[in-house]
Amino acid sequence: MVLLLCCLVGMIVTSALIIWKALMCVTGSESPVVVVLSGSMEPGFKRGDILFLHMSKDPIRAGEIVVFNVDGRDIPIVHRVIKVHERENTGEVDVLTKGDNNYGDDRLLYAEGQLWLHRHHIMGRAVGFLPYVGWVTIIMTEKPIIKYILIGALGLLVITSKD
Amino acid sequence: MHSFGYRANALLTFAVTALAFICAIASFSDKFSNQNPSVEIQILNINRFKKQSHGNDEVSLTLDIAADLESLFTWNTKQVFVFVAAEYETPKNSLNQVSLWDAIIPAKEHAKFRIQVSNKYRFIDQGHNLRGKDFNLTLHWHVMPKTGKMFADKIVMSGYSLPDAYR
């Protein structure tokens, strides 16, 4: 019985992992789905919306919504590209971003003294959009109790179900 | 077998599947819309044109933008983000894109407009290549759906140039 339950839980966990890794392969981005955490892109993206990312070799162009990491910050940021300067011979690129709902550009968010984002900062570009679904993760990270209650209830359900 | 839990589960699964299906169809229906936006941009004035102390050229200019983007709106459109970028080549850079002005259009009623604005973002080159420079002005739009796939397109207008001397 216990063994069976372990197998069941293991199957659920591994299938979730498989789906996630498959998405990583298809989209080419190390995190194919992100939840919007701030209102800096309102009214386009609100807190709790989900974005689907895609990372391809295509060059980055103005107007695209990119997800980027800044050195010294853990949480990735989703903002729009407003300036692009691409080198002639190396193809290296200088990018400046801004949140649609922010007054100024993002230089204040970048690491100190950093004027431009480069290719390696960028994790992907947003291609699709699903509203509200991300609230589940926001609630769970901000109120861990709910997460434990939910996991407990699901566990109880698995254990008590007869078939 | 037909406990409350099972029924609730079946109902929830069905509801979520149906919702996902409807969202997918709504996004797919965007493909059949007929888009023919139009735009005209004139440079009314070069307000300022100088070389900054650290060597980069900076321009301030006034634009006259007349656009009709009504055809971009469908029932699945939440907003259209529109911006005008100056695009040019320099010996160092194969592409420079500098956003000069942008706006969020929340509804179809606001999609046909004409405005005169000076550039909202600073037009600064990486270097001092802007004297006598020919450049394109490109109107880009980015349609944000209520749900589903986002899409973008642009109209490129060429034949603009900057003065031969600083002023």
From TrEMBL, chain A:
Function: Catalytic component of the signal peptidase complex (SPC) which catalyzes the cleavage of N-terminal signal sequences from nascent proteins as they are translocated into the lumen of the endoplasmic reticulum. Specifically cleaves N-terminal signal peptides that contain a hydrophobic alpha-helix (h-region) shorter than 18-20 amino acids.
Biological process, per Gene Ontology: signal peptide processing
Keyword Nucleotide-binding assigned: no
Organism the protein comes from: Arabis nemorensis
PANTHER family, per the entry: SIGNAL PEPTIDASE COMPLEX CATALYTIC SUBUNIT SEC11 (PTHR10806:SF6)
EC number(s) stated in the UniProt entry for this protein: 3.4.21.89
Family note: Belongs to the peptidase S26B family.
Keywords from the UniProt entry: Hydrolase, Membrane, Protease, Signal-anchor, Transmembrane, Transmembrane helix
Protein name: Signal peptidase complex catalytic subunit SEC11
Protein location: Endoplasmic reticulum membrane
Membrane-protein topology: Single-pass type II membrane protein
Catalytic activity: Cleavage of hydrophobic, N-terminal signal or leader sequences from secreted and periplasmic proteins
Coiled coil: none
Gene Ontology, cellular component aspect: signal peptidase complex
Source organism, top-level taxon: Eukaryota
Recorded GO MF terms: serine-type endopeptidase activity; signal peptidase activity
From TrEMBL, chain B:
GO biological process: protein targeting to ER; signal peptide processing
Membrane-related topology note: Single-pass type II membrane protein
Pfam families: SPC22
Keyword match Membrane: yes
Transmembrane segments: none
One Gene Ontology term, aspect cellular component: signal peptidase complex
Compartment(s) where it occurs, according to its Swiss-Prot or TrEMBL record: Endoplasmic reticulum membrane
Keywords: Endoplasmic reticulum, Membrane, Signal-anchor, Transmembrane, Transmembrane helix
Keyword Cell inner membrane in record: no
Superkingdom: Eukaryota
Function of the molecule: Essential component of the signal peptidase complex (SPC) which catalyzes the cleavage of N-terminal signal sequences from nascent proteins as they are translocated into the lumen of the endoplasmic reticulum. Essential for the SPC catalytic activity, possibly by stabilizing and positioning the active center of the complex close to the lumenal surface.
Family: Belongs to the SPCS3 family.
PANTHER family: MICROSOMAL SIGNAL PEPTIDASE 23 KD SUBUNIT SPC22/23 (PTHR12804), SIGNAL PEPTIDASE COMPLEX SUBUNIT 3A (PTHR12804:SF8)
Protein name: Signal peptidase complex subunit 3
